[in-house]
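MODEL INPUT / OUTPUT PAIR
PAIR INDEX: 1
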Amino acid sequence: MNKQLLKQLEDIVNRGISESYFPVVSKNSVRIKNMMVRKSKKGYLVIDAKEGEQVAFTEFKSTALAIAKSKAKGINNTDKLLELEHQMAKHYYDAMFYENTINKTTDELVRSTRETRLDIALAETQRARQQIDYFIFS
């Protein structure tokens, strides 16, 4: 094919992507319009590439993507999403603790109560994750 036609096709595709809210993955980052999500040693940074400033720091990638998409749409849900992430992290770490206790204990009463608490913690983790996913997929 002609190089000029390939260049025109590439420009059309790139223009369409830049105007949409589709995530574009490149090397170590995910871009949604002018927002960028980048992995760091302790979590994920959400950066506004247009302003050149950090918008948020999250522990989970799903929360970072939700914040990036909301900001790209011009909606500021950062505080709500960070609160949901805090709830999800709390219940997730509780579930890890309960699971470890279940595996280590020899007392059946302790095992029984921790299994109930584990079920509750997993349900609450899932509930918070679903709310975060709503922001990503809406």
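PAIR INDEX: 2
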Amino acid sequence: MATTKEYIIEITVDQKKANQALKESKKELQDVRNGFAGLATGTKEYNDQIEKLTASTKKFTETASLAELKAEYNKLNREVGKLVPGTADYIRATTQLAVVKQRYTEVRTEIANVGKETAETAKETAELNNLDLGEL
């Protein structure tokens, strides 16, 4: 017995809204980054700012394209390479890098899975085309 799979994908993007959301998340992220000035590691204020940074970075990654995620990942990676481990700036940058890397990996995996599903569907379609249906 043959099985069928049907996929219906509908994507609606309001580019103006998407661009505005990205712009707002970038501004918020920059404001949070600027909030680290004068804070010492280990203080409650610093830890609160790290939490804000994590939330703002997540918000940014949810609105960013794959190219923007890759650019941010590369920028943070370069920044971390120039910082002294254990410093406030190092902790801030590695915290952000972890969030961006996680989302970048998720998006890449989603894209790879779509490719696998498309290839599987094409294979199943080819198999259906090769079926000998006999006389109808």
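PAIR 2 NOTE: The CA atoms of residues 1 and 128 lie 11 Å apart.
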